[in-house]
Design a protein that fits this description.
Blueprint (H helix, E strand, L loop, with lengths): L17 H7 L6 H10 L8 H24 L2 H19 L1 H5 L10 H10 L13 H5 L22 H7 L4 H16 L3 H10 L16 H26 L5 H23 L13 H6 L11 H4 L7 H6 L8 H12 L13 H13 L4
Helix pairs in contact: 2-16, 3-4, 3-6, 3-12, 4-12, 8-12, 9-10, 9-11
């Protein structure tokens, strides 16, 4: 699904400040950093099932247990349980990012297990992300109009930031509409199917992104996931409408999904600096436009789970699994040191990043 609005950048005409001028200068690649990233992480590319499975299953157990408590407990306890459910299911859902990068067969059964426990129940099957997120990592696409996961938010109007976050709250409504209504209708209406595939089958933030129809084995996987998720969404609506599922339970479920989507959108807001206005960038420029929030920050694992706190590092070594990114970061910091190009992508926490982005949107550009 495309969850963003058609934001527009501000005019670049008129006098520009020094920061803007610097942004437009081409940035040469730091070859020493790129070489170190490749050499120091060669032994870290294996996804370890002994970490993936317990992590995901623990999140599922805590998340659904807390969700049930939120549906049934008195108000005060229900709120606390809801917060726990949001954090646990957000982490469980974040494994969709790992699924796009680990090779097929690397973790036997994990993809199926994740879909049965997380992707289908939360209505976020991985086909919405697989084949989309990899375009964001394509060297020639990052930060351009062809990047499904990029908007020059730092160059937009100040109101674009709160709208960017608030629109995510509508995610459960969009998901139900996508899978309970549009999917079955599009199966018998070919023109609608083309629209659904192009515009409502990607977890992207670029409103101009249009997805190509799937082919081959990926098409088979897509259809299996879509059919299963549609069946779940239709059953959920039907059972609620007939009173089998209490209305409160249904609304709590949608509220938790909405909160998960908002939290993820806030994380997305600070995953990059969003300072590129469509030009192709070197790998180093892409890295510096991305964000690491390494320790000692204690809250980052909550709002940027499953390795997402090392988002800039991930852009250097996208095939390194989440559980090895901390090791990779420490190795690179030891080898390259403070003040290096590598170090410049590290930030202390969420509030400062949000403030920086907000200030950037308010800078006068003529």
């Amino acid at each position: 699904m495309n969850s963003s609005l058609a934001f527009t950048s501000r005019d670049a005409g008129g006098p520009a400040d020094v920061q803007d001028a610097t942004r437009r200068l081409p940035l040469a690649d730091d070859k020493a950093m790129l070489r170190a990233a490749a050499e120091l992480t060669r032994d870290l590319h294996v996804a370890r099932g002994a970490i993936f499975w317990p992590d995901m299953l623990a999140c599922v157990a805590v998340g659904y247990g807390a969700l049930y408590a939120a549906m049934t407990a008195p108000t005060g306890w229900a709120i606390l349980a809801g917060v726990i459910a949001v954090l646990a299911l957000y982490r469980a859902g974040s494994f969709i990012h790992e699924l796009t990068h680990i090779r097929q067969g690397a973790l036997p059964g994990f993809r199926l297990g994740w879909h049965l426990l997380v992707g289908i129940p939360l209505m976020v099957p991985s086909f919405l992300y697989e084949g989309v997120h990899t375009l964001h990592h394509a060297r020639q696409r990052y930060g351009t109009a062809e990047d499904p996961e990029y908007l020059p938010l730092a160059l937009m109007k100040p109101w674009s930031l709160p709208v960017f976050v608030i629109v995510a709250a509508l995610a459960p409504v969009a998901q139900l509409l996508r899978f309970a209504v549009l999917a079955p209708l599009s199966a018998v209406i070919p023109p609608l199917r083309r629209i659904v595939v192009e515009r409502y089958s990607a977890l992207s933030i670029n409103p101009s992104f249009r997805r190509r129809a799937p082919e081959g084995a990926f098409r088979t996987m897509w259809l299996a996931q879509e059919i299963a998720t549609s069946a779940w969404a239709i059953a959920l609506v039907t059972l609620t409408a007939t009173g089998v599922i209490p209305l409160r339970a249904f609304l709590v479920f949608l509220g938790v999904i909405s909160a998960v989507a908002v939290l993820n959108q806030i994380r997305t807001l600070v995953a990059h600096l969003w300072e590129n206005d469509g030009e192709q960038m070197t790998v180093t420029a892409q890295y510096l436009d991305s964000v690491n929030v390494p320790p000692p920050g204690l809250l980052a694992p909550l709002w940027a789970p499953v390795g997402l706190r090392y988002h800039a590092l991930h852009h250097l070594v996208p095939s390194v699994p989440y559980h090895a990114l901390g090791v990779a970061h420490r190795r690179l910091m030891k080898a390259l040191g403070q003040g290096s190009t590598y170090d410049k992508a590290s930030y202390p926490g969420l509030p400062g990043l949000v403030a920086r982005l907000a200030r950037s949107t308010m800078v006068s550009r003529g």
